[in-house]
Amino acid sequence: MIETLQSAKVIVCVGSGGVGKTTVAAALGFLMAKKGRRVLVLTIDPSQRLKTTLGLKDTGEISQISHPQIKGQLSAAVINAKKIFDEFIRRAAQKDELAEKILRNKLYVQLSTTLSGSQEFTALEKLYSTYESGNYDLIILDTPPTKHAIDFLHAPQKLSVLFNEGVAKWFRRNPASEKKRGLAMLAGILQAGSLQVMRVLEMLTGSEFMRELSDFFRNIEAWQFKLEDRVNTVHRLLVNPDTHFFLVTAFDLAKLKEAEYFGREIQKGGYHLSCIIINRAFPQWLKLTQVDDKARTPVSKGSRLVNFYEEMKRYYQERDQTFELFAKGFLSNSADRNFLFRIPEFDRDLSDLKDVAELAQLIEDNETRGKDKK
Amino acid sequence: MIRKKRPETLVPRMEITFVTGKGGVGKSAVAAAFAWSRAEAGKRTILVELGERSFYKDYFALPAVTYKGQNLRKNLDVARWSGLESLHEYALYLLKVETLYRLFIENSVSTALINTAPGLSELAIVGKITSGPPRNVGPKLPYDCVVVDAFASGHFMALLRAPQGMASAVRIGPMGEQSRSIDRALKDAHLCHYYVVTTPEELPVVEGIELANDIQETLGLKPTLLLNRLAQFDGKCLSEPPGPLKDFQDHLVSLDERQRRMKQTLQKTGLAVQELPWVLENDPFKVVKKLAEVFSHD
Fold first, then answer.
1. Which residues in chain B have Cβ-Cβ distances shorter than 8 Å to A205?
2. Phi then psi for A233, rounded to 5 degrees?
3. Taking a C-beta distance cutoff of 8 angstroms, is the pair A203, B174 a contact?
4. Can the peptide bond before residue A283 be classed as cis, meaning omega within 30 degrees of 0?
5. Are strands B273-277 and B224-230 parallel, antiparallel or unpaired?
6. Chain B residue closest to A318 (CA)?
7. Which one of A82, B134, B226, B231 is most buried, counting C-beta atoms within 10 A?
8. Lowest-confidence range among A89-93, B225-229, B266-270?
9. Is B256 helix (H, G, I), strand (E, B) or coil?
C-alpha cells in the first residue's frame, strides 16, 4: 500500500457513510507527509474535533498542519459544496448579471444544496482545480457520504444529463414566442409527442413549477457546455493510472458484499482500485490467535470476565471466518492479497491529530511487518 | 383530481416510523427490528428502504427487494421505494389513462428530468410514504405500519425539507398543493414518529443530537433517541482479578465509562431515550429478533 501511496498523484477514498473514510484519508495523508511528500487532504463534513485540531475552516480555505513528524507538507481543506458550486457558476456564466439570475432561481437554490449529484460534482471540481494548481505531490479526496458509494462515480454524469440538449431544449425560449410563458412558449418548438408529455407533466406539477423549471434551464444554457466539459476532464483524471481508489468498508457481511459489488463497479468503470481497507475489523484488545487455556488461568472458571471475553471472542471469530470466506471469493480473480488491509477497532473515536498520527504509525508498522514475512 | 374526503373514523390509523441517524450506527437493523416487533403484534407492516441499491436483499438473503414488496414473514413485507417508481405510480393514479401514462413514462427525456429535477425525487418518496388516507390523496397502502429505513443525517433532512422547499417555491397548482399536504402529514404527531439511532460513541451521539434538533426545528415534533449497541456485561467484570485478560478488562473499564457518559449526554437533551443492547450475534435474523424483543416490551 505504501508503494502505491508513494507514486500516486491522487487517492480517492470511497465507501458508504460511517465507515471512517475521513479519519483514514487523514491518516494516509499524514503518513505520506511524514515521508516527505507535499500532501493535500480534501475532506467533506469532518467532525468538529478533527476540524479544530487540523485548524480547518468552513469557508473552504486550505490550512497547513504542523506536527514534529511531518517532513514534507500536510495541508487540508473542507469542501464547501454551496460555495464551490456558486463559484463555478459565476466563472462559467461570465456575465455577473446572468450569474445572479441563476443564483436567485428558486430551483437552483434547492439544486445547489440538495440535488443528488451536486455535492459529488463539487468535490470533483475542487479536486481538479487543486490538482491543476500543481502545488501538491499527492491529493487525497475523502468522498461525500452517499448511502452506497457507487453513487459517487455516477453522480456527475447524472448531473450532466440535466444539462444535455434533450432535456434543456424543452425549456429554452423560442424567439418567436418571447412573451408567452409556460407551455404556450414551447408549443412552437416541440414535436407533438413531446408536447403531450409536457402537458402531462404540467398536469402533475402545475404551471408555476413548469415556469420555474423553464427559467432555470434557460439561465443555465450559458454554462451547460462548460459543465459537460468539466465532467469529462475530471473523468480523465479519475481514470489516469496515477489516480488510485481506496475502498474503505466496515466489517460485517452486508457491508462487505456492498464493497465487493462496488469494487467490481470501480474496475468496470476503468478506475484503478488499489486497496481495500477494512476499518474496525477487530478490537485492539483481542488476539484472535491467543490460546484459550492461557486466558483461563489463573482466573477461575466461573469468572464473569472470562465468560464475557469468551462470548466476545466467539463473536469476533465468527466474523473473522466470514471475512476469510469473503476474501477468498473476492480475491479469486486478483493475484494480490496485499491490497486488503485491516485496521483494528480502537477503544475511542479517532478524531484528533494525535489519533491520526497513531493510525498512520499503525499502517506503517503493519506494512513493514508484512514485508518482513515475505 | 383530488378524491373526496372519506370519514376518518372508518379508516384505521396508520402509523409511519422514520428511522435515521449517522451512517454505520445500525439504522437498518434497528428499523427491521422495529418492523418485526410490529408484525409480531399483529399489525400489517411494511419495512421500506430508500435509494438505488437494496440492503435488505443481502441482509435477509432475499431473492430480490422490489417496489411492490416481498413477503418476509407473517404480517411483514419488505420493499424498496425509489423516487422514480413512486412518481410513476402517482402519475398512473392521476392520469388513469394507460396510454397517456405510457407515453409519459416511456419518454426518456421525462425520465431524465424526473431523475434530476431538484427535489422532485425526494418529494415523490415522501408522497408515496404518506399516500392514501393520511392525506386523502393517492393510492391507499394496505398496511397498518410503515417503517422507513431512511437516509442518513443530511440526506434525511433534505427528504424532510423537500415538501416545504417545494411549497414555498411553487405556490400554485397541484405541485404546491401536494407539497403542502405532504408537509402537513410529516408534521402530524399522530401519524409520524421519528427515531434517531446512535451508538455510545462521540461522533454518532453528537451528530444524532444535531439531527434530532434539526427534526424538531423543521417539523415541530420530538424524535426519540435510540442508543444502539450498548454492551451488556456484569459489573463484576470490572473488578475481578483479570489475570492475562488485563487488556480486555481495561477495555471494558473505558467502554463502561464511555457508555455512561454517552447516556448522560443523550439524556440531557430532554428527549426520550431508548436503550438497545449490542447483540453479540452475526446472524441478521438473530440480531433482529433480539432487538425486536426490546421494542415489544414498550
1. 170, 173-175
2. -60, -45
3. yes
4. no
5. parallel
6. B282
7. B226
8. A89-93
9. helix
